[in-house]
Design brief:
Layout lengths: L1 H31 L5 H27 L3 H26 L7
Length: about 100
């Protein structure tokens, strides 16, 4: 069972790191685009920050103890909070998508 928790942790950690970098890239792409909304870039940076904090916390749990199941839970909570922030921000704060 420990092997499965280890495997799940490393897969979730890799996906979280890639997602953090992708959200940062999306934020910079929106900032550099002349037609993008700056609020969307800030929201992408906030989501990347929340996910990055979750990755950092999960990494610290593994460094201090070998609780892989707990670290998977920390990463899962970071994923859920990031998803909720993205849905709320892009749906309500940024406004509806306007097709040209």
């Amino acid at each position: 069972m420990e092997f499965l928790f280890k495997l799940a942790y490393y897969v979730m950690f890799a996906i979280s790191c890639l997602s953090t970098f992708i959200l940062i890239k999306i934020g910079f792409d929106i900032l550099w685009d002349g037609y993008g909304k700056n609020a969307e870039a800030i929201m992408a940076f906030i989501a990347a920050f929340i996910l990055g904090v979750g990755v950092y916390m999960a990494y610290n749990v593994i460094k201090t103890s070998d609780k892989y199941a707990y670290s998977c839970g920390v990463l899962g909570i970071a994923w859920l909070s990031t998803l909720i922030i993205i849905i709320i921000c892009f749906s309500f704060i940024s406004g509806p998508v306007k097709w040209q």
